DNA sequence: CCCGTGATTTAT
DNA sequence: TAAATCACGGGG
């Protein structure tokens, strides 16, 4: 059962990306598929700062068919296909026409593990189900038809508040993954994860 | 470590 | 119209 007031609302998502990225840790992503709840706690995120950030799709104000969603209001979800295979789930933050986002990189799965396993196929252990952004897209059954959905009002895809702020756990900050092309932005400490959590993605930043 | 994958973007 | 790029993951 999902009470509407348990969900994260517009005010939460209309903050800056580094703030939302930190505060999303231990909140719960929910996707209802054919009446079943697929859910888990977010344990790793990355902030993408918008027009100034060379790692962001919206760098320099780039506005194309794909990046258009980044210009939507905070709370909209931005899903894009990466390397031709992986569907990456992001949350647009800040305000309309200010193209900032947070990438959800790892989740501690809590509900619907059997359905996740069916979609992930090869995955065996729980910590292999959602320990990376592409794995999350597969495990949660998220694809490009979910792009531009409003997480604040949508009936089947949303984020529930399961953690208070300030957080009662330690947060590790380090550089983001897979953006070596981004020059001085490649080393900015915009990746956040729950310290010691076994579900974070294991790739080491160089 | 290396490489598939294919839509999107950018260069001719 | 063609080429390059890429918020990754799986198998060695």
Describe the structure in your own words.
This protein has 206 residues and is α+β, with helices and mostly antiparallel strands. It has helices spanning 10-13, 17-23, 113-120, 133-139; strands spanning 28-33, 36-48, 77-82, 86-93, 100-111, 157-160, 171-174, 191-194. Strands 1, 2, 3, 4, 5, 6, 7 and 8 form an 8-stranded antiparallel beta sheet that branches. The longest helix is centred in the middle third of the chain and has 8 residues, at 113-120. The protein starts with 9 loop residues before the first helix and ends in a 12-residue tail after the last strand. A hairpin with a 6-residue loop joins strand 4 and strand 5 (100-111). The chain binds a DNA duplex (12 and 12 nucleotides) through strand 3, strand 4, strand 5 and helix 4.
Descriptive labels:
4 helices; 206 residues; eight-stranded antiparallel beta sheet; alpha+beta; 28% strand; DNA-binding
* Average of per-residue pLDDT values: 95
Q: Which structural category fits the helices and strands?
A: alpha+beta
Number of strands: 8
| Secondary structure tally, helices | 4
- The dominant shape is globular
**How far is the N terminus from the C terminus?**
43 Å
Low-confidence stretches: none
In angstroms, what is the radius of gyration? 16 Å
Secondary-structure element order, N to C: HHEEEEEHHEEE
Range of helix content: 10-25%
**Percentage of residues in strands:** 25-35%
- Largest sheet properties: 8 strands, antiparallel
